[in-house]
Specification:
The complex is a heterodimer of chains A (247) and B (441).
Chain A: H1 2-17, E1 20-25, H2 32-46, E2 50-55, H3 59-68, E3 73-78, H4 82-85, E4 94-101, E5 104-108, E6 118-123, H5 128-135, E7 139-144, H6 147-155, E8 161-164, H7 166-175, E9 178-182, E10 189-196, H8 200-210, H9 214-222, H10 232-246
Helix pairs in contact in A: 6-7
Chain B: H1 2-19, H2 25-36, H3 41-58, H4 60-66, H5 75-86, H6 90-122, H7 129-150, H8 152-166, E1 169-170, E2 177-178, H9 192-208, H10 225-250, H11 257-272, H12 277-302, H13 308-319, H14 330-369, H15 371-392, H16 396-412, H17 419-440
Antiparallel strand pairs in B: 1-2
The chains are: A alpha/beta (247), B mainly alpha (441).
C-alpha cells in the first residue's frame, strides 16, 4: 500500500513539475506556419513539456490572442508579417531565427525579352512602388490572393512574370515554362519564433535544439531553406533589418 | 493489404463525414491527420480517394431527406431532393443519385484514360483567370435568370445581399481588413455555417413543416432497387452523361472545383429540363463525382493541389516522402494513377453505392417513425453544430449572433429560393479578384 501511495505522489509531483507552455498555431492545415508549429509542439513534448495547443488557424486572430495572453506562449512568425499585424520582433519577444528565403522573380519563356506592357503577378500586400522600380513604369500589376494563386496564374498563362517566394518559384522552374532569379531588390523573408511570458534565453536553447531535430532538418532540406546561424543578438539584428525592408 | 486498410478507413470516415452536415472532406482530413501520419504515399492517396468518393454518396442523404447540405456542393441536391421528399419519393432520389454517382466516377476514369496525354500537356489551361471569368459569368447569369420563377429583380437583390455579406474581412486582392464596422470578429469575415443554416436550412425546415405540408414525414414509398435501376435507365442516362462531362471539366478549376461541377451541370440541365427534378438532381450529383476525380488529377499529375482538402493531403504526402516537384515525372504519375489508384477508386464507388442505399433506408425509417423527435434533433443539432464551429473558430458569440440574425431573416424570406444569395456569398470574394484581374489583363 505504501509503495502505491509513494508512486501516486511521485506521479502527481512529476506532473506538477512538468513545464507547461502554450503554442499558438496561426496557420492553416497544409501551410508552412502550421507545419512548423506542429514540429515545435512535438519537439517540446518529446523534451517533457506539457504543451497546450491553441489551433487558431488565422494569423490575425492568433496575433490578437498572442498580444492578450498572460500565460507562457510561443508562436511561429515571420518578418514579412510584422507591419500588417502590428507585432514587431524585439528583445522581449524574439526567440530565434529559424530560416530565411529570398524572393524570386520568374518570367515565362515567351516574355523573357519583353520589356513593355509586361503583366506582373504579385501578392496582395506587396509594395507596388518597389515593383515599378524593379520592372519599370510600363507594366501591368496583377494582384493575387497568395503565392499559390500566383503560381497557378502564371502556369495558366495569365501573366508574363511573377514575384513569388522560393518554394513556389522552384515549382515554376521545374515546370520548364520559364525562368526564375533571386531578386536583389526585394527583401528576404525570415521565419522566426516569438514568445511571451517566457524566459527568452532559456526557451531559445530548447527551441534551437528542437529546430535541429531530424524532422526539422528534413523539412528545411526538402524545401532548400537556408538556416542562418548566429548569436541571439545577431539573429535579432538580422530580423529587424528584414522587418524594415518589408515596410 | 495496406491499401485495403487505407481504403476501408477512408470509406468509414467518408460515411460519417457525409451524413454530418457541415463536415466536409477538408475537416475530415484535418481530424484524421494524426492517424494519417503513419501512412505511406499510396495509402494516403487511397484514403483520400475513398473518403472523398464516399462523402459524395452519403452526403446526398441529409441533403435530400432533411434539406440540409452536407457540403456547399450539395446545394442542388437540397433544392431538387426535397421535391422528391415532398412526394414521398426520397428513396428513389437517393437511389438514382447513388447510381448516377457511380456512373459519374466511371465516366471520369474513362475520360481521364482517353485524354491523359492531352491533360498532361494542357492541364494548366484550367488554371487561367479567363476560364474562371467565363464560368463565373455563366453562374451569375444562371442565378439571375433561373430562380424564383425567373423574377430577375428578386434574384438580383438576393445576389447583391450575398455579395455584400462576402465583403467584410480580408479581401482577395488588397491587404488589410475592410468593412469591419469596428467589430474585431468581422476581420475574419462572416462565417459560412450561420449563413447556410440561416438562409437555407431555416427556410427549408419552415417550408417542410408549414401548415400545408403536414405529411412531409410520412413514410417514404418503398421502392426496390430494381425499380430505381429501371427509372435511372429510362429517364436519367442522358443527364448522367451530360453531368459527367460538364462536372469532369469543371473539376479542374482551382478553388471551386466540385462546387462549380455540380452547379454548372445543374444550371445546364435545368435549362434543358426545367420541370424534371430527377434529371437535374442526377446531373448535378453525377457531376459531383466526376469533378471529384478530375480535381485530383492536377495534384497527381503535376503536383499542384487545387482544393482545400488537397492542400492538407499535399502536406501529408510531402511528409511521407513524395516529391512536390512533379512536372518532370508526368508519365510515371499517369502510370501510377491507372495502376494503383483507379482500381481502388472504382471499388470505393461500388461500396459507396452499396452502403448509401441501406443507410438511407435506415435514416428514412428513423424519420418516418419519430417525426417530432427527429425535427427537434435536427434543430438542436444545427444550433450545436454552429456553436461547436464557433468555439473552434474562437468566435462563438459572433457565430450565435449571426445565426440568430440570419435565421430570422431566412424565416422571413422563406418563400423565396435563397440559392443566388448563397452562391454569391461563397464565391463573391473570389469573383471580385477574378473580375479585377480580367479587367487589368
Amino acid at each position: 500500500m505504501k509503495t502505491i501511495t509513494i508512486i501516486v505522489i511521485l506521479l502527481f509531483t512529476s506532473m506538477a513539475m512538468a513545464d507547461s507552455i502554450t503554442i499558438i498555431n496561426n496557420g492553416k492545415a497544409g501551410g508552412s506556419y502550421n507545419a512548423r508549429t506542429q514540429m515545435y509542439k512535438d519537439g517540446l513534448e518529446a523534451r517533457g513539456f506539457e504543451v497546450m495547443y491553441e489551433n487558431i488557424g488565422k494569423i490575425s486572430q492568433a496575433v490578437k490572442i498572442f498580444k492578450e495572453t498572460n500565460k507562457p506562449t510561443l508562436m511561429v512568425f515571420s518578418s514579412n508579417q510584422v507591419h500588417k499585424q502590428d507585432l514587431y520582433h524585439e528583445k522581449g519577444n524574439f526567440i530565434l531565427l529559424e530560416y530565411q528565403q529570398p524572393m524570386y522573380i520568374c518570367k515565362t519563356n515567351e516574355a523573357s525579352n519583353k520589356k513593355v506592357n509586361l503583366t506582373v503577378a504579385h501578392g496582395k500586400g506587396y509594395d507596388t512602388k518597389l515593383l515599378n522600380k524593379i520592372f519599370g513604369d510600363n507594366i501591368v500589376l496583377v494582384p493575387y490572393k497568395n503565392s499559390g494563386a500566383m503560381l497557378k496564374g502564371i502556369l495558366g498563362g495569365d501573366v508574363d512574370a511573377m514575384v513569388n517566394n522560393q518554394g513556389k518559384s522552384f515549382r515554376y522552374l521545374k515546370s520548364g515554362k520559364g525562368t526564375c532569379d533571386v531578386s536583389a531588390d526585394l527583401p528576404i523573408m525570415m521565419a522566426t519564433v516569438i514568445g511571451k511570458n517566457v524566459n527568452v534565453k532559456t526557451i531559445r536553447k530548447i527551441l534551437v535544439g528542437v529546430s535541429y531535430d531530424k524532422t526539422f532538418v528534413d523539412y528545411r532540406s526538402t524545401r532548400k531553406l537556408d538556416r542562418p546561424e548566429g548569436t541571439w543578438f545577431e539573429e535579432l539584428k538580422l530580423v529587424q533589418e528584414s522587418e524594415t525592408n518589408w515596410q | 493489404m495496406n491499401e485495403l486498410v487505407a481504403v476501408v478507413i477512408g470509406l468509414f470516415a467518408g460515411t460519417i463525414t457525409g451524413i454530418v452536415p457541415g463536415a466536409g472532406v477538408t475537416v475530415a482530413m484535418i481530424v484524421a491527420t494524426p492517424l494519417l501520419m503513419g501512412f505511406d504515399v499510396v495509402q494516403l492517396l487511397l484514403f483520400y480517394m475513398s473518403l472523398a468518393s464516399m462523402v459524395q454518396f452519403t452526403g446526398t442523404i441529409p441533403a435530400v431527406y432533411l434539406g440540409v447540405p452536407g457540403e456547399t456542393n450539395s446545394l442542388p441536391a437540397v433544392i431538387e431532393g426535397t421535391k422528391f421528399n415532398k412526394r414521398k419519393l426520397a428513396k428513389l432520389a437517393i437511389g438514382i443519385c447513388a447510381l448516377g454517382s457511380l456512373f459519374g466516377s466511371v465516366i471520369a476514369v474513362g475520360l481521364s484514360y482517353g485524354f491523359i496525354s492531352w491533360l498532361s500537356k494542357h492541364m494548366t489551361v484550367f488554371f487561367s483567370n479567363v476560364t474562371k471569368f467565363y464560368l463565373y459569368i455563366f453562374i451569375i447569369g444562371f442565378c439571375v435568370l433561373v430562380y424564383n420563377k425567373k423574377n430577375i429583380f428578386i434574384n438580383m437583390i438576393l445576389c447583391a445581399i450575398g455579395y455584400v455579406l462576402s465583403l467584410p474581412g480580408e479581401s482577395d486582392i488588397s491587404s488589410g481588413f475592410r468593412y469591419t464596422l469596428g467589430i474585431d470578429d468581422l476581420q475574419f469575415g462572416i462565417p459560412l455555417i450561420p449563413v447556410l443554416i440561416g438562409f437555407l436550412v431555416v427556410p427549408t425546415i419552415a417550408n417542410m413543416f408549414g401548415r400545408n405540408q403536414k405529411d412531409n414525414f410520412m413514410p417514404s414509398i418503398d421502392i426496390g432497387f430494381c425499380k430505381v435501376l429501371k427509372y435511372f435507365k429510362n429517364k436519367c442516362l442522358p443527364s448522367t452523361l451530360r453531368g459527367s462531362v460538364i462536372g469532369y471539366f469543371c473539376g479542374f478549376v482551382p478553388g471551386v472545383s466540385t462546387i462549380l461541377s455540380t452547379n454548372a451541370s445543374y444550371s445546364y440541365e435545368k435549362k434543358l429540363n426545367p420541370n424534371n427534378p430527377g434529371k437535374t438532381l442526377v446531373a448535378s450529383e453525377t457531376a459531383n463525382n466526376a469533378g471529384q476525380f478530375a480535381s485530383m488529377l492536377p495534384l497527381l499529375l503535376i503536383g499542384i493541389p487545387i482544393t482545400g482538402s488537397e492542400i492538407v493531403l499535399y502536406t501529408l504526402l510531402v511528409d511521407a516522402g513524395w516529391s512536390p516537384f512533379q512536372f518532370d515525372n508526368v508519365s510515371n504519375n499517369a502510370d501510377m494513377i491507372f495502376k494503383k489508384i483507379v482500381p481502388w477508386f472504382v471499388f470505393a464507388n461500388i461500396v459507396g453505392l452499396l452502403v448509401a442505399w441501406p443507410l438511407a433506408r435506415t435514416i428514412l425509417n428513423l424519420f418516418a417513425n419519430k417525426k417530432k423527435f427527429m425535427i427537434g434533433v435536427l434543430s438542436v443539432g444545427m444550433v450545436l453544430l454552429n456553436t461547436y464551429l464557433g468555439i473552434l473558430d474562437y468566435r462563438v458569440v459572433f457565430y450565435t449572433t449571426c445565426l440568430l440574425i440570419f435565421g430570422c431573416v431566412g424565416f422571413y424570406i422563406r418563400k423565396y429560393e435563397t440559392i443566388p444569395l448563397i452562391f454569391m456569398f461563397i464565391l463573391g470574394n473570389d469573383m471580385e479578384g477574378v473580375f479585377l484581374r480580367q479587367w487589368l489583363m
